[in-house]
Amino acid sequence: MVTYPEAHILDVVGPLEVLNGTRYFLPDGPEPYRVTVVAPQAGPVRMASGLSLHAHRSIAEAAKDTSEIDTLIISGGHGTSAALGNAELLDYVRHAAQRARRVVSICTGAMILAKVGLLDGRRATTHWWWCPILEQRHPEVQVDRDAIYVRDGNIWSSAGVTAGMDLALALVEMDWGHAIALEVARFNVMYMIRPGGQSQFSAYLVAQRAEDPAINASLEYIMGAPADPLTVTALAAKAGLSERTFARRFKDETGLTPAAYVERARIQAARVALETTPKGVEEIAYVTGFQSAERMRRAFQRHLGVSASDYRYRFRDVRADDALIRDGPDHP
Fold it and tell me: How far is CA 315 from CA 82, 154, 282, in A?
């Protein structure tokens, strides 16, 4: 994690809390992440909030380390403007990125990635206030103003502040699987489903726990059995409620009708299968409740703006396709 004076403290601690929280759900496994905070100077670094964080290493010290980096994260915040003039910091990011499996920017950290050329020809996002500035200063970057976060090959960028936690949750899912990510989301009281087509992964909906026990049980049932006939009649019967009462209480808790929630839950299940399994689109459509590839295609287009096949191409598990990481999504 690269930070600097006057950075936004949540840009640093938010993603790190999500990543480090994974260890609670891997009690017998390896330590999920070992974190090193790097700043212009080791020791206390004053954040924009007035609080200080402790940097483990100075940039000068970190630059001497030539070992591989799994994930290089660049924080953002009010101090970004000054950081853009720090040649030592920029040089470190430029060279460290070459030995990192993936590179991540939080909030205005995207400005630093763009400054050193890492976003040239790529899609990216940043805090909404800075999006037009990123576009103006770096016209070679394809800026997505609406995205919660964006992945283009092995480069990830997020919108402002808490969007960095959404991005970190996506990293957990990539590294440790959907089930662990869901537990981390619940632990952090975060949302989990990530819609938004080929540019946006927003985490919401499925990890939400309803206060009503009957509705909460229904949510878990929907996610656990997306291929079942999840009609209002069937769900209401399972919840022991009349259809009218069930539909009303369900919408009060989730903000969605049962049918809308079921479709989004099926999209989530299909998305995970498309990203992480070699199953064909037709088979995935069947096991996730869409019954046909055409129905799934229409649902993906409606909610995500891409077909299921295009989604798989853009977001498939990069561990199974090293070329995607090395060359980016335009070079399969």
Answer: 34, 11, 18
Chain length of the chain: 332
Find, among 180, 177, 182, 209, the residue nearest to 193 by Cα. 182
Q: Map out the domains of the chain with their CATH numbers.
A: 9-187 (3.40.50.880), 213-318 (1.10.10.60)
Q: What is the mean pLDDT of the chain?
A: 86
The dihedral over CA atoms of 248, 253, 258, 259, expressed in degrees to the nearest 10, equals 120
Cβ-count burial 185-211 (b if 16+ within 10 Å, e if not): bbebebbbbbbbbbbbbbbbbbbbebe
Q: What is the mean pLDDT of residues 202-209?
A: 42
Pairing of the two strands 142-143 and 123-124: parallel
In whole angstroms, give the CA distance from residue 140 to residue 119: 8
3-state secondary structure 134-198: HHHHCCCCEECCCCCEEEECCEEEECCCCHHHHHHHHHHHHHHCHHHHHHHHHHCCCCCECCCCC
Q: What pTM value is reported for the model? A: 0.62
Could you say which of 97, 107, 192, 207 is catalytic?
Answer: 107
State yes or no: is 107 an active-site residue: yes
Residue 325 has pLDDT above 80, yes or no: no
